[in-house]
Amino acid sequence: MMRFAVLAFLVCAVCDGLEQNLAFDAASASSTFSAGNLNGSPAFNAQQALSGGSGYWCSSGSHSAGQVVTWTGVLNSRRTALGVKVDWAYSPGEVKVLISRDGSSFEEAKCWQPSGRGEVAYAESIMFDSPSTVKAVAISMRSPLAWGYFGINSVALLATPGPFMLVSGMTSAVGEQCVVNSASAGVGLEPCIGAIATGDGREILQFDSDGQIVGTDGECVTLANGDTTAGGVLRMEACSVEVGSSDGRTVFTATAAGQLKMPKLGNFCLTVVGDGATARMVVQDCSEADDNIDARDKFFMVAVPEYDPSASSAARDSASLLAAAGVHLGGLVAKLDAVMPSLSACGFAGSLVATRLSQSAKSAQDHGLRRTTAKTSKAEDAASAAVSSIASKLGVDTKGTEALIAKARSIISKVSR
Fold first, then answer.
1. What is residue 65's DSSP assignment?
2. Is 274 helix (H, G, I), strand (E, B) or coil?
3. Which residue blocks in 236-393 are alpha helix, DSSP H?
4. What is the Cα gyration radius of the chain?
């Protein structure tokens, strides 16, 4: 599936009670096992510890007792964290944890502490003294043990619930699909880029302390009437005030397998039936849903900032300015086209017309969405697609505006000769 920069890259999360195990988006290390490569081997670089799997980060080895080696993980969006979970591949003799709120300035969250275990590999949770806002975490290691290396299989931030996008594991020709709160269609799936482009926050959800999935409008994802017949109907309704005494129609929990289960209704999980325009959200027996080979019963939480309606408001204002500038420029171009045959005799007046036209073209460009014909990376291609989608949602004809500006410049060059 496509991963796109405008979304801020994918962060998988699994809820465990009121905590989320969040993977970091990027990582670096002060030491990496070289395996013959002076710059460090890709097979053991810091990114290998972003998620569990066959790879792991490993230091260069042969460290002195006082040498400090650091692995640093960075999030795209700040989160409130309770601690960090480290799955050691080669455990250190001592470890210290630093945190950063801005990704650059670090402070101590846990001072140097000795390893309490003698195994080479094990998992441990290092809790902070108090909940902290985190953008980056640095894990410092020293006092190597008999194996001589420091190594990490995976690192996860133990975070309190925060806003996220719920991305379906199902593959799609139109890119990643997000669970959205649509006023017209209720709870459904939309291409994530398109949902973001609307600017109304339909794709932003959040778990509350009772396990309810809350939208930006304050309503909760609900199985209508608690009825699972034929998959039931999912829509946004008022959240349950007393969840403990409710029938569980609004309560979900994320499992380690990536499913969203409704624990108070038995063994039912959220899944997708149908494809394309016919796809809809339903609940099925979790075992039956898990049999789907295209992971349509799996959902990934992409951490995002809080919804800020002012951003979309500013975009709409800019779109209005662009439309007005385009109309004004179009009028000037049309008038100039009409008088072009006699303009050469106007002398100084002709240069004034050219100046005015040039200023209008610059105004339209300044308020427009600039495009590039240069070769881009996949992430940049995705970002360009997102920008184009946003322009379309705002009613901006980017190609038409660029064509108008090009025409104005062509006429300006003729007038100025």
1. T
2. coil
3. 286-289, 309-343, 348-366, 378-393
4. 27
Residue 208's Cβ-count burial label (10 Å; 0-12, 13-18, 19+) is middle
- Residue 339 confidence (pLDDT): 74
CB 208 within 8 A of CB 193: no
Phi, psi at 99, each rounded to 5°: -130, 155
pLDDT given for residue 185 in this prediction: 66
pTM of the model: 0.55
Neighbours of 1 (CB within 10 A): 16
Provide the pLDDT for residue 2: 34
Could you give the CA distance from residue 197 to residue 394 in angstroms, rounded to a whole number?
A: 8
Q: Are 56 and 153 within 8 A, CB to CB?
A: yes
What is the percent of the chain where pLDDT is above 70? 76
Cβ contact 100:106 at 8 Å: yes
User: Quick one: average pLDDT of 171-192?
Assistant: 83
Q: Looking at residues 255-261, what average pLDDT do you find?
A: 84
Count other Cβ atoms within 10 Å, centred on residue 325.
22
Q: Strands 94-100 and 69-90: what pairing?
A: unpaired
